[in-house]
Design goal:
alpha/beta
């Protein structure tokens, strides 16, 4: 069987956006919680850069963005150029995020994942975070029992291996026991990660957050705004026909 790889941060971002929209009029969204989540992460990261590299807040933010762009993961740049301990970074940044106060079990997300026929495709968590963060996210969302496994960036081993590099995709294939790239399906909110997955031969859906404009150049075969659109683009993996699910965006396919 193939595997449907879902990025952990995509679950967080999509969940927070949906939760923030509760109580609003139809079609209206408040992205307050989404921004709170991002700002918390940005604040923790910038503080770590400033503290350990003796940088101003602005310089810390610029360097963090540079390393993310250059390496796909800010911690990779810190390890390569500043000999930072990845596990220490994980404790002070990812594990320090106050997710417990922001995330609670999400019945809608759970129902979506439960509707996937596990005899046809494995559900696999695929994250650039260390394992503690990935497990924490799905635990708080109440969906940890629905994934057959997790491929994560192992902060205990150097050099760090993360998306979008070929070695990380190879690792995910091996750990999920998938023999062909044709049997790999991928959902991520990173344009860069989706572009590399698509180039590798994975069937890819780029999740674009509601507050973001469409990218000038599409990253993948599919572009979606909501995880429920997976019912329409991958109907063969769901136990029952699509009902009350969002239609695929007319321009979603290349």
């Amino acid at each position: 069987n193939g595997a449907l790889y879902i990025d952990a941060f995509s679950l967080i971002d999509r969940y927070l956006s949906a939760e923030a929209g509760r109580g609003k009029g139809e079609g209206e969204y408040s992205l307050e919680l989404h921004f709170i989540n991002y700002e918390h992460y940005q604040q923790e990261t910038d503080q770590y850069f400033a503290k350990h590299l003796s940088l101003s807040g602005r310089d810390a933010e610029m360097l963090q963005q540079k390393y993310y762009k250059d390496y796909g993961l800010a911690i990779s740049g810190l390890v390569a150029h500043h000999k930072v301990d990845p596990l220490e970074y994980n404790r002070e940044v990812d594990d320090a995020l106050p997710l417990d106060s922001l995330i609670t079990p999400n019945p809608g997300l759970r129902q979506l994942l439960e509707d996937i026929d596990k005899s046809k495709v494995k559900l696999w968590l695929f994250t650039n975070a260390h394992i503690t963060h990935g497990q924490r996210v799905v635990g708080l969302l109440g969906i940890e029992d629905l994934f057959e496994g997790i491929t994560f960036c192992d902060y205990r081993r150097l050099p760090l291996v993360c998306k979008p590099y070929r070695e990380m995709f190879e690792k995910a294939e091996a750990e999920a026991g998938v023999r062909s790239v044709k049997d790999c399906y991928f959902v991520d909110d990173s344009h860069l990660n989706c572009r590399h997955a698509q180039a590798r031969g994975w069937t890819t859906a780029h999740l674009v957050e509601p507050d973001l404009p469409e990218p000038e150049e599409r990253a993948a075969k599919y572009q979606i705004r909501d995880l429920n659109e997976l019912r329409s683009i991958f109907p063969e993996f769901f136990k029952t026909p699509t009902t009350n699910a969002a239609d695929p965006w007319p321009s979603s396919q290349l």
